[in-house]
Amino acid sequence: MAFESLSDRLQATMKKIRGRGKVSEADVKEMTREIRLALLEADVNFKVVKSFVKRVQERAVGQEVLKSLTPGQQVIKVVQEELTDLMGGEQTKLNLALKPPTVLLFVGLQGAGKTTSAAKLANYIRKTHNKKPMMIAADIYRPAAIKQLQTLGGQLNIPVFSLGDQISPVEIVRQGMEQAKADHHDLILIDTAGRLHIDEALMDELDQIKSVSHPDEIFLVVDAMTGQDAVNVATSFNERLDLTGVIMTKLDGDTRGGAALSIRSVTGTPIKFVGMGEKMDALEPFHPDRMASRILG
Ligand code: GDP
């Protein structure tokens, strides 16, 4: 299960302080030391850990705890709030175009879960917002990527626009946008190529696709299992493309949690959805407060 070890360690730490009628500075020091180690072990970015622990420490020895009738619980509330904040605070809503169609661009490295997430999200938004989606297959490099999107589209009964793999992705997107408008689709999802590594050619191509499609959301799809690599990937993509959100996949796996806890803080880009499995309904909006509650038990 995701976050299992982190969750166990933080819960053990919180348990020690929960019932306290008084919390001394030494207690806080001991607690924050344990939190720090637990976060580092969960592969959370060290700068993120440092500032997180500092904030918890300041608040836990502050007035809100001192004046509280139940200081132990108050300290736990502080940790919970800071953990929520770390992951973005409020849930970040999907940005839909005021004037349709809404265009969603999916970018990321190969194998992160782009194609799957595009199909899942098309299905999700169709249900929740009553939209008429169309997907554009612009990954011409990975063998079978187009076929994979077509298969998923077929299962979900969502049309997929493709021009094969002999035409430039930018041209595919240009023509796909025309087609979607002609067919009155109010939601367009563009699946782009992911490479094994970030390279200039990939970024240039994505930049051009961005210029011709004017996306309302640029989602970076990252695999939670890749830890701090996911955070580095997010930093690079964000510098070039100005991401609007992250979709973090494979949170159903046994990730330690480092990427999920660091990515917002390091890149400023919020996680908007999480992938919880391979099935088409295994996608959920991301709620930082619920995730923090889940971790702290
Ligand atoms: P792409 O190369 O980025 O388009 O990646 P794909 O969409 O082909 O996904 C790569 C693999 O990850 C596939 O086998 C997917 O079924 C799997 N996958 C995607 N999202 C999730 C998820 O949230 N959980 C799990 N367990 N597997 C996922």
TrEMBL record:
Superkingdom of the organism of origin: Bacteria
Record flagged with keyword GTP-binding: yes
EC number: 3.6.5.4
Major location (coarse): cytoplasm
Example GO BP: SRP-dependent cotranslational protein targeting to membrane
Key words of the record: Cytoplasm, GTP-binding, Hydrolase, Nucleotide-binding, Ribonucleoprotein, RNA-binding, Signal recognition particle
Coiled coil (residue ranges): none
Molecular function GO labels: 7S RNA binding; GTP binding; GTPase activity
Reactions performed catalytically: GTP + H2O = GDP + phosphate + H(+)
Signal peptide: none
Occurrences of domain SRP54-type proteins GTP-binding (ranges): 270-283
GO cellular component, one term: signal recognition particle
Keyword Hydrolase: yes
Binding site for GTP: 108-115, 191-195, 249-252
Subcellular location: Cytoplasm
Function statement: Involved in targeting and insertion of nascent membrane proteins into the cytoplasmic membrane. Binds to the hydrophobic signal sequence of the ribosome-nascent chain (RNC) as it emerges from the ribosomes. The SRP-RNC complex is then targeted to the cytoplasmic membrane where it interacts with the SRP receptor FtsY.
Domain free text: Composed of three domains: the N-terminal N domain, which is responsible for interactions with the ribosome, the central G domain, which binds GTP, and the C-terminal M domain, which binds the RNA and the signal sequence of the RNC.
Subunit structure: Part of the signal recognition particle protein translocation system, which is composed of SRP and FtsY.
Family label: Belongs to the GTP-binding SRP family. SRP54 subfamily.
Record's protein name: Signal recognition particle protein
Lineage, broadest ranks: Bacteria, Bacillati, Bacillota, Bacilli, Bacillales
